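User: Could you check the structure of this?
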Amino acid sequence: MQQFSNQEIADLKSRIDEIHELLAARGGDEPAAPVRVELEPRSDVAAPRLVDQLSFSIQARRMRRHHFGSAQMSGPTWDMMLDLMLANANGRILSASDLATGAGVPLSSGLRMIASLEAMGLVKRSIDERDRRRTIVRLTDAGTERMASYFEKVGLALRSNRAG
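Assistant: Sure, the predicted structure tokens are below.
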């Protein structure tokens, strides 16, 4: 399997962050009423779009917390899960150091985060057979299923918000 370079991981993380921000402009597991913020009237259409994006972002974060049942599933830990899901979808593998670099954390912090994800049954670690110094991290079947079902919920919420 082909591996991502650190630069590719950083670029992918940046793209995922952009996509997440676009998807993430509403908030909650059950499609909750969008959060509305009163803004001063403006002549451009950017203000309502920004409010919708902010609202969906809050909704997606709440959905993620409820779906995974853990406040730990945020920040760099969430970035690692996104990197792993993308690598899985592209038939690539990532090492523990790749994940830490992509999440922007020191390796020691990344290893603690990976251990937490492993304890939750979402990832598994193994030794790279070609370079026994490297630890490969992969999503478990349960981790892949949880990520896929989360993004299905986000997609439904996004379509619901666009239709409403």
